[in-house]
Amino acid sequence: MNLEPIIGLEIHIQLKTKSKMFCSCSNLGENEPPNTTVCPICLGHPGTLPVVNEEAVKMGVKLALALNCQINRQSIFARKNYFYPDLPKGYQISQYESPLALGGHLTIVKGDFEQRINLERLHLEEDAAKNFHFKDKVLVDFNRSGTPLAEIVSKPDFRTPQDARNFLQELRLLARYLKVSDADMEKGHLRCDANISLRPAGEEKLYPKTEIKNLNSFKAVERALTYEISRQSRLWEEGTAPRTQATRGWDENEQKTVEQRDKEESADYRYFPDPDLPPLIFTEEAVSDIQSALPELPQAKRLRFVKEYGATLADVHTLVEDEAVADYFEKAISEGRSWLEAENDALGTSEEIWALNKQKLTKLIAGWLLSELFKLMNAEGIGIGDIKITPENFAEFITLVYQRKVNSSAAQIILKQMFATGADPSHIMEEEDLTQLDDAATLEEAVAKVIQANPEQVADYQKGKTPLLKFFIGLAMKELKGKANPEKLGEIFRDKLR
Questions:
Q1: Same domain? 392 vs 453
Q2: Where is the Asn/Gln amidotransferase domain (predicted)?
Q3: In the prediction, which pLDDT does 376 show?
Q4: Residue 14 CA to its chain's centroid (Å)
Q5: Whether 93 and 222 share a structural domain
Q6: Are residues 193 and 106 part of one domain?
Q7: What percent of the chain has pLDDT over 90?
Q8: Least CB-packed of 213, 243, 461, 473 within 10 Å?
């Protein structure tokens, strides 16, 4: 039987405010001793009144607009009623019939094409406390209770576990660019429940879904969905496809989902408007102000890097993954352009010089940044913001390579010294005597010595063993102390040995 997975996601993003959603307690409780960032409001004491965190609302609107959602002009908080040890009031303040925003979409990249994932809604709510389970007891830390959350509910637009993982990674990147959340799954800043059902390919009908919980990493999301597809496929083949909604948890140790409890319907929560909180009213002007202040978003930045700089799709995806890296890249590009224009001003206008060189220069900057510089950073365990090489010096270094003032071996030496000291690349080149030799007579003299000293290899080369060319170039490079251009040496050898 040909079955099609139908997957939707429910994502909670912890908003990066200074205080909690409805009280003035610190929102940094995860770094403090248990039950120290609490007050009567977030502990649910009778008679206390919540006050909405304005900054959390602004962050929610910012996230909703970046996700192309429609902001509701009137948004209402509701009480979601259920009993659990981590819920001190016996209800959670959330939103139901009138959420912060409706609709929206986020685009993910699948190979060479894009896929649009549509959204149902985005609403604000408070987080519950955190339970710690021991053999015979459960301890509760209320530091997290009342933390502001944005819940995003997708439509069931995913057809593969990989698509779901890609969506979450793109959403994490978006939240970080907006600076509304660190969106770190390992720390619980981004949490996800996945809903999945199967149906015969070609059918439009939706079958009862299974919700998967305890997904605390991107790998866990992908593996849990893959497992659940396999499990439900077996049930379909056996004629016992799921007939009711259910909830299962992901067991990381066993790498499988396990039954938890029946899935609740919304009616089970007995939602009703919270009488202690007035509606949120948004004017057109207020929404427009937030919209106009949005930064350039990841996908827009990727497209601009390709169009403006001629960067490859593979490079831009890595560059944009970290906003600081993307900024460093752009500054290096700008400085590199200035260097080129200053040294070639007699060859045309600045636009003409840039048009002629931008693709090669961009490729060099991206290549050295993402390979060699990343390699040095990873070895030290530091990020782009911690390195001693300024974008200006990195651009100067790339210009030396681009203009062939140093060869690749010398460039490696220079970059390592720059990384260690932050020194100027031109000074290192001069002090270490690494300037590439371009004197034709000197190069030809070295080539002649190699040819004279290796008559047998020369004879073999002339009989057709052309791979020996690398052997000759290596000897010549040794003769010239590694300061020659290997390509130029190759040209001279080929000319002399014809």
A1: no
A2: 327-497
A3: 98
A4: 17
A5: yes
A6: yes
A7: 74
A8: 243
Same domain, 282 and 175: yes
Please identify every stretch of the chain with a pLDDT value under 50, giving residue numbers as ranges: none
Share of the chain above pLDDT 70, in %: 97
pLDDT given for residue 262 in this prediction: 63
Do residue 240 and residue 135 come from a single domain?
Answer: yes
